[in-house]
Amino acid sequence: MLCAIFTSVVEAQQSLNLMPLPEKVQAGNGRLVIDRTFSVSLAGHHEARLDRVVEIFLGQLRQQTGMPPIDMKVTDSASGTLVIQAAGGTKQVQELGEDESYKLDISDSGAKLKAPTTLGVMRGLETLLQLVRTSSDGFAVPAVSIEDSPRFSWRGLMIDAGRHFIPLDVLKRNLDGMAAVKLNVFHWHLSENQGFRIESKKFPKLQEMGSDGLYYTQNEVRDLIKYARERGIRVVPEFDMPGHSTAWFVGYPELASGPGPYQIERQWGVFDPAMDPTKEETYKFLDKFIGEMAGLFPDQFFHIGGDEVNGKEWDANPKIQSFMHVHGLKDNNDLQAYFNQRVQKIVAKHGKTMLGWDEILRPDLPKDIVIQSWRGPDSLAQAAKQGYRGLLSSGYYVDLMWSAERHYATEPQSGAAASLTPEEQKRILGGEACMWSEYVSPENVDSRIWPRTAAIAERLWSPQDVRDVNSMYQRMAVTSRWLDGLGLTHNSSYDPMLRRIAGTDNIAGLKALADVLEPVKDYTREETAPAPATSASPLNRVVDAVRPESATARQFTDAVNELVGGAAKPGVEARVRELLNRWRDNQVELQSQFEKSLLLKEVAPVSQSLSALGAAGLAALDYLDRSEPAPAAWVTAQLALVEQAKKAQAQLLIMVAPSVEKLVQASAGQPAPSSVPAK
Ligand code: ACM
Fold first, then answer.
1. CATH code given to domain 154-485
2. Ligand 1, residues 336, 357, 397: which to mutate, most atoms within 8 A of Cβ?
3. Atom of ligand 1 at shortest distance to CA of 307?
4. In angstroms, rounded to a whole number, what is the distance separating the alpha carbons of residues 587 and 611?
5. Cα(39)–Cα(34) distance, rounded to whole angstroms?
6. End-to-end CA distance of the chain, in Å?
7. How far apart are CA 99 and CA 254, in angstroms?
8. Residues of the chain with CATH 3.20.20.80
9. How many A from CA of 148 to the centre of ligand 1?
10. Pocket around ligand 1 at a 6 A CB cut-off
């Protein structure tokens, strides 16, 4: 029976730790015990996909709660512990906008999951799994009633397999992560200057000459699509054209606008090679190729990229210049628009809807195409006003190493998009997190995607007014551990990487340092590289191991804000002092390791800076505790030191520097800034 209603949404959020947060949650009384007698009845519509969904669910439940002898099963009787009632099945090929809603009612005697479709069942089962708690007598889920449906119908994750090849097993575990946070589109970026990553039977030199042998066979692709479908995830392939396409030209230089020959690109950036939009042979090739891929990928949407064509090969080719003149194409944008129109007809001929990055937006394309915005919500709004559907990815680039908070604050219906008419707003389908892969390997890619992508998933699923950042962080930490259990390596790869860098099992000191560091943000890593990185550069530096967002630094910042604001709870100062002490003394512990490891040596100055910050913070606290203003000369010297510590070293940022600055300012009796600046 449902008796209590949470007094606030925040209370419900915090007690259940669900992510993404459901639309409506009501607490009940008691709990449903999960033990070996747990069984599932399928009472409603039944399709083969549903059996597989329940099998996956039971597998995860057994792993989480399994008590020997394990006996959780599907039962023929209508009185299973969990009764699943789907009103209908799903489409043969999962469609954009299929109903994903569900209702979940849990009481002390059983659970009922009702949904219009098998997709809704999947989403509800993920919620149920997130509710399982350990208890002294086993496991249980709290009595609760949930009604839930997504805010946006397109909630994606893009993984770039072009710049660095990402093996199939790594993709599969990331699909598990996506399903856990109710993401429903895997956007597979399959070709780049640095690699053509899929087998073509029609044009085998694409993969044979353009991939260094690192590509997916068509059987592997079918396998991945099946795996995704079982988890309610659509798979949208991207073949970037006419730019970002050097790898195509290694085997087929006749497609390009320059004289060739071409080699696989090894560096990062925007490069000159581009397809020749003026040759009929280009379109004949693309017709066959897109036809082949359209047969392999069942999804309705087909992504043609379209971004970042620098036009240099077009400018340098007299035949292309003369074509433009004859056809009245006044610049390279016109030429690319001509190319897009031709390609769109090919994509449509093969039964697909074209999707591309911002650059493809031109009023001459049919209105069914979809624009993916990497430039910002304003260009999304512009597309919507012109009648095009769009997705937001600007603000969701997880390779830029932003905080979860910053991604979480990125709202598809903001900026110019906030003032669209309701009709136009409907054209904003959702968004996608983007994992560009210049600096990721199978070892660290999960840590760049997770757990921050869970915050993006919540932005795209939950109601727009779900915005409590502290609650998000608290639930994201729980979600992160849940993702560990699914086999994601965002946490488990950290220690082995640090051990390898240090060349020793004793990494306590290195961890104390690494825990407060983050990689430089945005494209700074590119800009500050001592030598240009290439696709062969090993990703084994401290910058590759540290997390994109330091939880320790965030907690330290909160504690310092409490202290400086004069509202610190007991124990906060002791905790702050403990950390500062650790950082001050850590340098001594690490010194001998720096001398023994080349990979570690580059962070020696970072450790020295952190040590100085520790000492400065402690002294500042002493002044504050004595209510004695710190001497001006000391303050000036400390602030100079902090300024130095804020600068990137070894492409790393010390995330606690701004909070130490705050302590120093407070010790001088200076008014502190209202909060530590967001990173
Ligand atoms: C992009 O970031 N060029 C899509």
1. 3.20.20.80
2. 357
3. 3
4. 6
5. 9
6. 46
7. 46
8. 154-485
9. 33
10. 307-308, 357, 374
Cis peptide before 167 (omega within 30 of 0): no
Question: pLDDT tens for residues 291-305?
Answer: 999 999 999 999 999
- Strands 185-192 and 234-239 come out as parallel
- C-beta of residue 215 within 8 angstroms of C-beta of residue 168: no
Q: Nearest CA to 185 among 238, 119, 233?
A: 233
Q: Which of 135, 117, 113, 110 is nearest to 126 (CA)?
A: 113
- Type of residue numbered 268: W
Pocket test residue of 240, 270, 307, 355 for ligand 1, highest count of atoms within 8 A of CB: 307
Ligand 1 pocket, mutate which of 310, 374, 435, 526 (most atoms under 8 A from CB): 374
- Residues with catalytic roles: 308
Q: How far is the CA of 675 from the centre of ligand 1 (A)?
A: 33
Structure tokens at 631: 């001497």
Q: Is 242 exposed, middle or buried (0-12, 13-18, 19+ CB in 10 A)?
A: buried
The angle that helices 469-485 and 168-180 make with each other, rounded to 10 degrees, is 130
Residues of the chain with pLDDT below 50 are 1-4, 6, 674-679
pLDDT 10s digits, 573-627: 999 999 999 999 999 999 999 999 999 999 999 999 999 999 999 999 999 999 9
Distance 446 CA to ligand 1 centre (A): 20
Q: How many angstroms does the Cα of residue 661 sit away from the middle of ligand 1?
A: 36
Tell me if residue 556 falls in helix, strand or coil.
helix
Q: Which ranges in the chain are annotated with CATH 3.30.379.10?
A: 2-148
Distance 521 CA to ligand 1 centre (A): 16
Q: Residue 652 in 3-state DSSP?
A: strand
CATH of 2-148 among 3.30.379.10, 3.20.20.70, 3.30.70.100, 3.30.2400.10: 3.30.379.10
Question: Which residue's CA is the nearest one to ligand 1's atom 3?
Answer: 307
Reduced to 3 states (helix: H, G, I; strand: E, B; else coil), residue 534 is strand
- Residues 369, 169: Cα–Cα separation, whole Å: 32
pTM, to two decimals: 0.96
Residues 564, 483: contact at Cβ < 8 Å? no
